[in-house]
Amino acid sequence: MSARAIAASALAALGLVIAAPAAAVEPPPDTAAVAALDCDRLSRTDIDTVLAHTTAPRIIAISGSFGLSTMDPFARFLVAMGYPADRIRDPASESWSYSSAMASSTLAGMLAWHYERDGMMPLLIGYSGGGNLVMRTLHELDGAFGNRIAVVDAMTGETLPRDTIVDPMSGSVRPVLGLKVPYACALATGKLPRFLFGQWTMLDKVRRVPDTVVDFAGLTIEWDTIAGTFPGSDPYRATGTAHVRNVALPATYFHTDLPRTEHLAQNPLTRAWIDAYRPGAPPPPLAADIDTSNLLHAADIWYGVARHWCQAAKARRPLEGPL
User: Fold this and answer.
1) Residue 16 CB: number of other CB atoms within 10 A?
2) Which of 62, 163, 184, 231 gives 124 a disulfide partner, CB atoms 3.0 to 4.6 angstroms apart?
3) What is the CA radius of gyration of the chain?
4) 67: left (phi over 0), alpha (psi -120 to 50) or beta
5) Exposed (0-12), middle (13-18) or buried (19+): which is 188, by Cβ within 10 Å?
6) Secondary structure letter of residue 278 according to DSSP
7) Domain containing 268: what range?
8) Do residues 201 and 127 touch, judged by C-beta distance below 8 A?
9) Reported pTM
């Protein structure tokens, strides 16, 4: 045995422990810095120096039907733009995205479970068939398919024997039914697949946005034969107070290619374009030799995500842990 090993054994026998240097803990931002943020006009500095040190809402990114095109690349794009990976990955499986085959009652129950634990409602991003699940879940929360929704443990998938939660904001007991999602979007979701897949109950609901979401964005390719959408197709409409935006994507975009967005965060020019994007007032065009595929919906969804991350940070203290 070497002299070093003998010395180590002796120290262990004496119960002596040499502590490793403590990892530096970065202090949370001043609450004034969070309060000063303009959530409608966030800069890259705002995200990297302020929001990055606050607790972010969980994002549930839902893939298309049959998992042919998953939302994994889009989830990784959000992380590359600065969103915390642990607030996107499925806490049970570590997957980047969720299956659109999930029942809307299950997803609604999971939203309630996360809200009760985190103090923040998750954000919903659905692509193709995943967008249909987003819409069905919003209608589920609105009571379209029943008068009660059971809480679902997102770690185990177990349906719990209760349909109420303790609201972390008020401290009072309330039903899952009627919970409101801050932000949701449906990307390339059309009525044609609902008809082909026999999803009859959603035919009259897939374009109607209920009051169980605050801000909703419907992003549609103008000529999308898979979704069955064409210029002038039925737009998303609020049934009440929800703020709804319809975004027409270029006809050059391909339905099955839409989640591919990681390259946009890796290129400094497209990344800056996305950071500067504001709905209705896009930045100047980029050079022709830059890959801008999928740029518009990537920028629009990132804007919505960052905006609601900011609003959640203002509503609670920085780095406040789960309740």
Assistant:
1) 8
2) 184
3) 22
4) left
5) buried
6) -
7) 57-281+290-315
8) no
9) 0.87
Can you give the pLDDT at residue 199?
A: 60
Q: Cα separation of 293 and 253, whole Å?
A: 7
Reference 208, options 244, 248, 247; nearest CA is: 244
> So what's the pLDDT on residue 248?
93
Alpha carbon distance 84, 177 (integer Å):
29
Query: 173-175 and 164-166: which strand pairing?
Result: antiparallel
User: How many structural domains is the chain composed of?
Assistant: 1
Domain-located, residue 38: no
Residues 6+ apart with CB under 8 A from 110: 60, 152, 154
Backbone phi and psi for residue 209, each to the nearest 5 degrees, phi listed first? -105, 115
Distance between CA atoms of 207 and 186, rounded to whole angstroms? 10
- Supply the CATH number for residue 225's domain: 3.40.50.1820
What distance in Å separates the CA atoms of residue 153 and residue 108, rounded to the nearest whole number? Answer: 11
Tell me how far the alpha carbon of residue 133 is from its chain's centroid.
14
Q: What are the backbone dihedrals phi and psi of residue 321, each rounded to the nearest 5 degrees, phi first?
A: -80, -175
Coil, helix or strand at residue 103: coil
Residue 220 predicted with pLDDT over 80: yes
